[in-house]
Amino acid sequence: MKAIEVEHLSKTFKVQKNRDGLKGALRDLFSRQYNEVAAVNDISFSIPAGEICGYIGENGAGKSTTIKMLTGILVPTSGKLNVGGYVPHEEREKFVRNIGVVFGQRSQLWWDIGVIESFGLLRKVYGVPEHDYKKRLDELVQRLDLGELLNRPVRKLSLGQRMRCELVAALLHNPSIVFLDEPTIGLDIIVKTEIREFLKDMNRDHGTTILLTTHDLQDIEALCSRVIMLDEGRIIYDGGLDTLKSRWGQGTRVTFQFGTACPLPRLQTLTSDLPVSWTAENDLHAEVLVPGELNVSDVLARVVGQTDIAITDIKITETTTDEIVRQIYRTGSAVNGSKGEGGLTSYA
Question: Which CATH class is domain 251-318?
Fold first, then answer.
């Protein structure tokens, strides 16, 4: 069953084109000219029920515009949408009862009243029966440890406290699909970890479908098995996170610290039949880059097994998702830098 289905979706905005000088400004008052800007350009994807999918891209790539169309805030210029069995912008009243939305930089809570009063108002907005509301609220308050915060005005909450309350507000009506737009922005590592664990538990226990947009790729690594990457309004990658790492990761770096001098040529000789690359700062410190298709243990065995080499420390570092994505956007690899043919685009 598909929770979200998108076919050839596009969204174009008209942006006023300003003429130069005073004369141009006067002309703009009476005869305005516009440029069309495609924020989302002919994208298609589907998300099965119960999946956590990461939706990533640089600023201006079209992430938030997509989320706004999927939640019914914006009407598409062209294409088809189906979210939980509804067309968001056409069946909004019924549709919103089935989704939850958290925008990290915007609040759905009332600023000057207690948190519990905001929850009560949202219960009425969504039409949640009193018994179901109390059961769901108790579960969420206990899980997110909000007991001491319920009677505080929202304006007196810290950012981390408010974000936990925002999650409860979005989940009070037990939606089957949740959209999260930068849910951990500005939070410290402890609160981020708590929210990630909560989202994983919610997905496991209730089968909730989650579409997550974020610039914090640690969120993606912690939560998502699949990632969709945008560039200038187009999908340039749609597939598994592991596949992205294996295709675009630089491999694994193994750093050796030696107790006695070990010249670089000696190390190169030990692995001469393996496709690895050695570098060395000096005879006491060397690093080898092991490609993804090669097992790191094969390289370690060649070096550690030598009785004449005194190793005092070994450090193993894998390429992170953050590094991979930065490299793709920095080098333009999405177009012409793939290790395979046809660029980065994948629909595995």
Answer: alpha beta
Domains 2-246 and 251-318 fall in the same CATH topology? no
pTM over 0.90: no
Q: Please report where in the chains the tokens 């289905």 appear, as a residue.
A: 5
Bigger pLDDT: 230 or 337?
Answer: 230
Classified as helix, coil or strand, 115 is helix
User: Is 245 in contact with 320 (CB distance < 8 Å)?
Assistant: no
**Three-state secondary-structure class, residue 309:** coil
Regarding the domain with residue range 2-246, which homologous superfamily does it belong to in the CATH classification?
P-loop containing nucleotide triphosphate hydrolases (3.40.50.300)
By CB atoms closer than 10 A (0-12, 13-18, 19+), residue 67 is: buried
User: Helix crossing, 189-206 with 159-171: angle to 10°?
Assistant: 10
Tell me the β-bridge partners of 235.
230
List the one residue out of 32, 33, 39, 35 whose CA is nearest residue 11.
39
CA pair distance 180, 173, nearest whole angstrom: 16
With left for phi above 0 and alpha for psi between -120 and 50, is residue 21 left, alpha or beta? left
